[in-house]
Structure to design on (206 residues):
């Protein structure tokens, strides 16, 4: 029997709230005691992703993700078993999936959108941290990010925001945000205060 203790910490928040940045800081703080599992790597093949009324893939719907497989993999981590999965390429031509080795370390951060909405995933979290930023702040961040990193036009970014992102927030994220154990305010420029999150994690791994 494997008696290794693995703490699953969900880091949740809307698109461009700063989840990735916060997870990066948490990983740096805990060093070789921590790993990260990203919900993005559980998206279904493009043909299975829900489409909007214009036929565009909507990645801001929980049905776009294989949440049953994610819950199973969280069980494996909690049992002390490493994961070997492939990265999700969002079906970009010429992009080869990267093999990922997720180690069952003392702390595994789960980074993603819908972990509080899905009961099967939520009940496997030992701690949940909500990264808060207003929709206005998040849209400005997404507008800058997606033009710089994804070569998307402002028109496409606004279309996705109005048709997919905000409706997904209102339907799947905001109604369950009160279930988070810790809230980190990341609405302003500069580094957010992570001390409440660090305290909550340390209490559970000490």
């Amino acid at each position: 029997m494997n008696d290794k203790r693995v703490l699953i910490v969900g880091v949740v928040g809307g698109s461009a709230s700063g989840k990735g940045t916060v997870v990066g800081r948490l990983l740096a703080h805990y060093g070789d005691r921590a790993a990260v599992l990203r919900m993005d790597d559980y998206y279904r093949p493009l043909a299975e992703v829900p489409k909007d009324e214009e036929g565009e893939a909507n990645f801001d719907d929980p049905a776009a993700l294989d949440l049953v497989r994610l819950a199973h993999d969280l069980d494996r981590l909690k049992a002390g078993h490493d994961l070997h999965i492939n990265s999700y390429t969002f079906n970009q031509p010429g992009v080869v999936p990267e093999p990922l080795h997720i180690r069952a370390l003392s702390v595994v951060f789960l980074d993603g959108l819908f972990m509080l909405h899905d009961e099967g995933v939520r009940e496997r979290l030992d701690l949940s941290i909500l990264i808060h930023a207003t929709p206005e702040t998040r849209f400005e961040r997404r507008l800058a990010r997606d033009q710089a990193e994804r070569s998307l036009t402002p028109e496409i970014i606004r279309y996705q925001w109005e048709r997919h992102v905000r409706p997904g927030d209102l339907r799947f994220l905001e109604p369950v945000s009160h279930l988070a154990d810790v809230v980190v305010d990341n609405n302003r420029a500069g580094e957010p205060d992570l001390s409440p999150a660090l305290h909550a994690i340390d209490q559970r791994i000490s």
About this structure: The longest strand covers residues 7-12.
